[in-house]
Amino acid sequence: MIDKSKLGATISWLIAGAQPPKSVDEIVEECAFRMIEIGIPIELLIVNGLFIHLQIRGMQVRWSKKNGRSRQTFTHEYMNSHMFHEIPTAECINTMRALRCGLSPSELPGDSDYLIQFANAGYTELFLMPLINFDGTVSGAIEVATRQTGGFSDEHLFALRRLQAPLARMKEYFTENFDKQITLATYVGEKTSRQVLKGNIILGGGETISAVILFADIAGFTEISNSSPSEVVLNTLNTFFAAIDEAVEKNNGEILKFMGDGALAIFQTPDDLTAQEAAASSAVDAVALARKTLAEKETNPTVEFRASLHIGDLFFGNIGSKSRLDFTAIGPTVNMASRMLDEASRRNAKTVCSKDFLNVAIGLNADAIECHFKGFEQPEAIYILE
After folding, report:
1. pLDDT digit string, tens, across residues 217-254
2. What is residue 250's predicted lDDT score, i.e. its pLDDT?
3. Is this prediction's pTM over 0.85?
4. % of the chain with per-residue pLDDT over 70
């Protein structure tokens, strides 16, 4: 017997944002408990979601009476595969229609390994509902299963259909926030994306921070781009960017932007000598790791890069126009690092650093070279590390 008052309360709870705030895993688990209290004999609840992410296309949160809650992610390759498109979940998402799957021996398709797994686990019916966004697009599907003899009754299915739209609103909220953060982070970096999502989008808004600056670009890229097919040029760029991004991220830095064949990364540090030493070491390790990664790849042409390292204060914030902003780093520290990279190219050096950087970098030694940089009145010392 369906408890209509509890059904109404659960609908309101979902529409109101499933308060108080919890993780999506906790909400799925509580939703399952509420369904049982309503009188729906579920023993398994699965929420499948589609996401915008470079590596992740699908995410599944699963709750069962026996095993509690769990989470699993799925790659683009799997979600586009024949294996995925054979299962009822894909049919529900693609057709945007609810789907009843009886699991008794007489109802069970002999060629559906997916449904056979449910039947072997003792479930008698699997019911799927698409999650339809406010704009009419689909964002995933819900699966519920029961072990009740005969499966779900019409009354149970009616109650589940009443929950379909509220569940979609809840799922859409989490998807929208996840997609916004991931998509923005893909283009501007994780830390910067958090600043933007906090509302730090005022033209000229930002803060002065202390950081190690790493500039890097591909050695000989002009020659490569002028003499190679476009697919070779793109592969060269993507190989370099992947290596430097992974190396910087593993060493607690952040790529602020890719510019042509170059990359700008920062390793933020407070005004503390020990922290600055750690940031400098992290930047050196990132350069070494990126070089190691590229050396292990069999590419034609071989991808090599130059790097410059500097440390100091910089402005980290919004520049641009009223309709277009760029969250970036500017200031003399950034300008110096850029000029140093140009000098590395002229001197055929792999890595150069400033005196300020050398002063906080543990275990590095090099001879000074006096350079005159455009825009700087006094000569500056740089050090060729390799």
Report:
1. 999 888 898 988 999 999 999 999 999 999 999 998 98
2. 92
3. no
4. 86
Answer with the one of 167, 188, 209 that is the final residue of a domain: 188
For residue 43, the SS3 value is: coil
Report the CATH number at residue 201: 3.30.70.1230
| Residues contacting 190, CB < 8 A, separation 6+ | 254
Q: Which are the contacts of 357, defined by CB distance < 8 A and separation ≥ 6?
A: 212, 280, 309, 310, 311
3-state DSSP call for residue 23?
Answer: coil
Q: Which residues contact 242 (CB under 8 A, 6 or more apart)?
A: none
- 3-state class of 102 per DSSP? strand
- CA 293 from chain centre, in angstroms, equals 21
> Given 3-state DSSP classes, what are the helix, strand and coil percentages for the chain, each rounded to the nearest 5?
45, 25, 30
134-161 core/surface letters (b: 16 or more CB in 10 A; e: else): eeeebbbbbbbbbbbeebbeeebbebbe
Per-residue model confidence (pLDDT) at position 17 = 75
Are both 197 and 214 inside the same structural domain?
A: yes
Pair 151, 271 in one domain = no
- Quick check: 108 and 116 in contact, CB under 8 A? yes
What's the rounded Cα separation, in Å, for the pair 172 and 27?
Answer: 13
Domain termination site, one of 188, 205, 234: 188
Domain with 33, as residue range(s), is 4-188
In the predicted model, what is the mean pLDDT of residues 4-17? Answer: 88
